[in-house]
Amino acid sequence: MKDLKKRILSFITSAAVAAAGLVLPVFPAKASALEDKPIIVTLGDSYSCGEGIVPFFGQDNKFPTETTVNPDWLAHRSKEAWPGKLTLPGVTGTMADHCNIGAADEKDVNWYFAAASGATTDDLTNPQNIDYDYDGSHHGSASIPAQLNILNGLTLTDNDFVTISIGGNDIGFV
Fold it and tell me: 3-state DSSP call for residue 9?
């Protein structure tokens, strides 16, 4: 896993991700524990997570206290983000129909969604701290896991993809 993280980070650095909104097919990835299902992994910032396009995953909880601890709501991962519109050969529907927004341990998914609004390149390998305000009545600060953690349990192959858009927040382009 450490080598995989290093490969991703070195690719990102060499590709000059400081250019805001850069989206690249990074390298193939495969979920060996997922019975050879084709997958797409989405990493990145607000461009990938769908900032501003509500509803967000986790927003439909009944109680604000449940919503404000949900990493998907905190990250503003939109059900309508562009990576959710992607398709894979042999998979019916879009990635939004086959989403795993948690760890790489579900068997019936094709899309692993870890992008987060406000993310910088540091948030690929470190937890991201997020300040939130839910309807003006619930506010605070929370942390979501490092984005590359979503790759735990996934191995490289030549059939699947990792998408990333990151760098805008690093250079102050918001």
Answer: helix
Q: What is the pLDDT averaged over residues 102-108? A: 51
| Amino acid identity, position 94 | T
Strand partners, 133: 139
Read off φ and ψ for residue 62, nearest 5 degrees: -70, -35
Where are any strands of DSSP class E within the chain?
A: 23-25, 40-44, 99-100, 111-113, 128-134, 138-144, 161-165
Q: How far apart are CA 87 and CA 95, in angstroms?
A: 6
A 10 A CB-CB count for 39 gives 26
Residues 51-87 have pLDDT tens digits of 999 888 888 877 788 888 889 999 999 989 999 999 9
Q: What is the pTM of this model?
A: 0.75
Residue 31 is encoded by which pair of tokens?
């979920």
User: Is 5 buried (19+), middle (13-18) or exposed (0-12) by CB count in 10 A?
Assistant: middle
Contact 15, 24 (CB under 8 A): yes
Residue 45 per-residue DSSP state: S
Residue 79's φ and ψ, nearest 5 degrees, are: -65, -20
